[in-house]
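> @MW can you paste both from yesterday?
MW: sure, first one:
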Amino acid sequence: MKRKLRAICIAGALIIGLALAAESASAAFWDTKGDNIIHDPSMIKEGNTWYTFGTGIGNGLRVIRSNDGIAWSAAPSIFSTPLSWWKTYVPNHEKNPGAGYQLL
């Protein structure tokens, strides 16, 4: 009886696993507009405003903001001038920090 129950459980787990594998794993497409280019994003919401912080464009951490999550505009960047302690902990840092500098 134990073997039969075990076989049924294994078969059930395989069927469920195959069914889940057949589902799409991609995220829904979110159609945004405006100044929305960002690399390595981190997003927060304060009140009714969304802020996204990222790297890869300009100096420091790029900031874009939106009131509806669709239309985005640039905000002043953070750390546009490298901080003095960066060279101590990351000797070969660049003016345009990578994702590791996102401490938010």
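MW: second:
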Amino acid sequence: MAKYAAAIDQGTTSTRFMVFDHSGKVVSVDQKEHEQIFPKPGWVEHDALEIWQRTQEVVKAGLDKVAIGDIAAVGITNQRETAVVWDRGTGKPVYNAIVWQDTRTDKIVDQLSADGGQDRFRTKVGLPLATYFSGPKVKWILDNVDGARAKAENGELAFGNIDAWLIWLLTGGTDGGVHVTDVTNASRTMLMNLETLDWDDEILSTMTIPRSMLPAIRASSETYGTAKGVLAGVPVAGDLGDQQAALFGQTCFAVGEAKNTYGTGNFLLLNTGTKPVQSKNGLLTTLAYKMGSADATYCLEGSIAITGALVQWLRDNLGMIEKSSDIEVLAKTVDDNGGAYFVPAFSGLYAPYWKSSARGVIAGLTRYVNKGHIARAALEATAWQTREIVDAMNADSGVALTSLKVDGGMVFNDTLMQFQSDVLGVPVVRPTVAETTSLGAAYAAGLAVGFWAQVEDLRENWGKDKEWTPSMDKAAVDKEYALWKKAVTRTFDWAE
């Protein structure tokens, strides 16, 4: 009798392997970072083979504490929109993975927008034309890598977000690997029709992407195949993009339930039920999950490119702190931001603006401002960007948010969480298992093989660890928010 469900969580900066028991408690975990490659300004790449190497390493280390025979199934969750194109015969990528933050496809996006505007495909795919999504990245690889287009048209190349790459390798790679993705990942390519849950031939034709490259689209919870290698014999049975996995791990199964993940970027998702809701306020309409043969569930999403990545930038590029957790210590050396506002539009602005030509600014600087103020402004930037998303979500859904479930690495920063509650004016709640992304993927896999009987059973596993309630004067919040909005306008149209 299996005792555990496992998850491989392949994120933007690291890969993690986690094993959970039936009550959702962590039994084993291992994690390793991988290299961030920046060939040119605005370009962000990963070595997909290094990611596979790190995946195997963390799985091996994570299996130190548990027997492989005790694992019922493994689920995959992944950084979304990061595109890998590989040779089916050799198993080697034809180019580095192009990361979701990368802005090199701006000219492709402009060309596609010239006929029909930024919302040209939005009614079909729920997304604006933006550099964020993986479809234009595939087109860039086919247009710019020698011989890639001819090989693709010959059926020799495969494309996937990182989930498809890992599932293919886990199930054998060149030796019978299964080439699949799930609805949540497919919905982030700009190539999947929200209604049919299939690839859209008209958009494929417009972007000149051969359909033969694309993985089969499957449910988020079903058995795709059996692992070989490090997890030999374990069913690979769950697949969710990282933000959808966090929504699932937070047990947001009812319409109107929402979560916000604080990671490299921030992603706020609101369950909208079994019909897609088109946004009028700059949010994305996307898939939340699909459990086996049940109807798909949709959500609205507010995506913010740079939040935790701003802390990393202060650490790695400026050397202001030694480790990410030092940001809170530095921010607490001052009482406020000293009049400084930091808008980290390093990859353009995502929701609700969708301006790929925006670039980061620090506004309101005077001689008074010191590094403590900059640290505080960096943390506040995360909270203000989230406030903008919540405003848009309230307008789209017609339902005001009453509390916010939070997860991810930054939720252990009490200063940030308190400020977040202050600027939203609602309680902010952290669960006992903050790494809900991995938990959601493990849930999806476990449900597929009967380790958990039904979705509603998972609610019993959710527990509250800490709650923050608003304590800041509303007039002070409104004044600060107006200055934040003013700073945001200074980022617009910076890149030519």
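> thanks! The mean pLDDT is 94.
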